[in-house]
Write a structure and sequence with these properties.
The protein is mainly β and 408 residues long. It contains 2 helices and 23 strands.
């Protein structure tokens, strides 16, 4: 295809690196009972037993030769993998109705999840994945087990304001982390990571006044590693000449902001028409590859490539607008504008080598891929949030009477 005199663009054929299909099958049994110790005190005990089989079928594998050498065989054949997981998860909770307008509660629970097919299909250090679309035959990963404790209270003031407050702690064992490969740049594999912890507090306040209603919520989250580990990412400025750096207990987990705030308000202009605004805001977070929280811009690595970017994803706030008109027939029209002010923001990020930089050897002028690898940079890559979006639609509520009320 010719797009300019002397300039041709060729679209290469699709290259299949790896292919996999996966399936979950879960059988569960659940029991629960509640005892009223006193008229105002209630205890609930429950338990759930899960048996889950995860099957992955690899139909193509570009790393077949490397895997054959790793396993000591002449030829590696793609095949099925089936893993079976069993777990009993108990829970204990209690509530105390201190007064008609105040309730205190406490909960202890255990939860678990089995690794996904993509995590099981990319868990072999000898055959890393291209983050993480290249999948290989891989070893077993244990279930992720989380134990949570929570204490809180909720109530209302003057029947117009509702509030809730709680503190929580979740200790996780065998959390799954995507680890960069020490031998294959821009590739990695999923691996179980000792212990992690997520603790914090949650506050909520809502109200209703005539045609106006609103809700707000705030979360403080302290998410940290609780086990030491050695990871690899040469784009982290604190790594050694081999790209190795250490994670210590207390280091913050990337991808999780410490502060999250939500508020929404709606106004019913008429019985049929309502409009509302909502705001979501969160603080900055560390990006993947900066698990030790030590990356700093400045300086160069062993190959002379500079370290640029903070290793953090900045905080942001977005506003959404919505409106709805309901007919008595059960039909309603709605419209919503997300990211009303078209704010540019980022939801996540990672440290890596950036080859798309200006300099000698650029593809076209100073843009595009730079073929001079000496000019590449160790940079922070960001995952952009969605731009402004406008949604318009029609909804129908079944069972709505002529008076506008829904029937059972």
């Amino acid at each position: 295809m010719q797009v300019a005199p002397g300039l041709f663009i060729f679209w290469p054929d699709e290259i299949l690196s790896n292919a996999i299909t996966g399936r979950y099958r879960t059988v569960s049994g659940f029991v629960t009972d509640t005892w009223s110790v006193r008229p105002t005190v209630h205890l609930t005990l429950s338990g759930r037993y899960n048996v889950t089989r995860v099957n992955t079928n690899l139909t193509h594998n570009e790393n077949a030769e490397e895997l054959a050498a790793y396993m000591g065989v002449d030829q590696f054949n793609v095949s099925d993998e089936t893993f079976t997981y069993r777990k009993f998860n108990p829970a204990l909770g209690g509530t105390w109705n201190v007064t008609p307008s105040l309730t205190a509660y406490a909960n202890l629970s255990q939860g678990s999840r089995v690794p996904s097919p993509i995590e099981l299909g990319c868990a072999n250090p000898a055959a890393p994945c291209t983050i993480p679309t290249a999948l290989t035959d891989d070893p077993f990963l244990p279930q992720v087990v989380a134990r949570t404790g929570e204490i809180g209270a909720r109530g209302h003031l003057n029947r117009a304001f509702n509030w809730n407050a709680s503190v929580f702690r979740t200790n996780t064992k065998d959390d799954i982390l995507f680890v960069s490969s020490p031998t294959q740049p821009q590739q990695g594999y999923f691996n179980s990571f000792g212990k992690t912890r997520r603790q914090g507090l949650e506050l909520g306040l809502s109200g209703d006044k005539g045609r106006f209603s609103w809700q707000s919520a705030y979360t403080y989250l302290d998410a940290t590693f609780q086990s030491p580990a050695t990871l690899v990412n040469s784009a982290n400025s604190s790594s050694d000449a081999d790209g190795v750096y250490s994670v210590q207990p207390g280091d913050r987990i990337p991808g999780l902001p410490q502060h999250v705030f939500k508020i929404s308000a709606s106004y019913r202009a008429t019985q049929a028409l309502s409009v509302g605004l909502s705001l979501y805001a969160q603080s900055w977070q560390y990006v993947r590859g900066n698990e030790n929280n030590q990356h700093q811009p400045g300086g160069t690595d062993a190959d002379g490539r500079p370290f640029v970017g903070s290793g953090k994803s900045p905080g942001f706030a977005t506003v959404n607008l919505r409106t709805r008109y309901e007919f008595q027939s059960g039909v309603s029209l709605f419209a919503e504008v997300t990211n009303l002010f078209d704010r540019e923001y980022f939801t996540a990020g990672g440290l890596g080598v950036n080859p798309f930089v200006p300099g000698a050897g650029g593809a076209v002028g100073t843009n595009g891929f730079n073929y001079n690898s000496a000019s590449w940079q160790n940079a922070t890559a960001y995952a952009p949030g969605a731009p402004r979006g406008i949604w318009v639609g029609v909804a129908y509520s079944f069972g709505r009477s002529k008076t506008g009320a829904t029937s059972d």
